[in-house]
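Open question from group meeting: does this chain pack into something compact, or does most of it stay loose? Before anyone orders reagents, we agreed to write out a predicted structure and look at it together. Recording both the input and the output here so the notebook holds the full record.
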Amino acid sequence: ILQYLGGQDSYGIANGTNWQRYSAIVANGNYIYVGTAGETEACAQTVGNARGCEIQVYDVSSSTKPVYVGGRDASGNSTGVTTKAIQTLHVRGNYLYVGTDTNTTACSQSAGSAIGCELMVFDISSSTNPTYVAGRDASGDSAGTGDQAIIVITSSGDYLYVGKSGEATAC
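Structure tokens returned:
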């Protein structure tokens, strides 16, 4: 678990004293994407303040001074208050794939609303402004209500491979 960001606390505040559990991290060029445990506060969009954002973006072009530059709530929008924890992150090209905790709400395909989707896809062609573009329920359905966590994501060629928590139902 990463708890030190070169002079910033887990909310991206220089010399702050806030604490939050990081659950996933992935690097892409001069940026790192960090997934956290669920937050009950609205996602802050102020540079240097990652409060409430389960998906956080840091500019690490200065290796000794990472700077929080943007984020998203686990619901996929910029100001939500969803408390789902991020389990895993994977970058491929201009896309950030996000695996989350379980949620029995129907998976939404509406732009900016990933509510209910355990697998979320964000366009990160603008590194500091991840945009939710699609999602799937843990069952693989675009509108499903399954309740399994996505715990690992990887890719090879044109395929995305997803590992999820166990289920008693036959595959």
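Observations to bring back to the group:
The longest strand covers residues 22-28.
The chain has no helices and ten strands.
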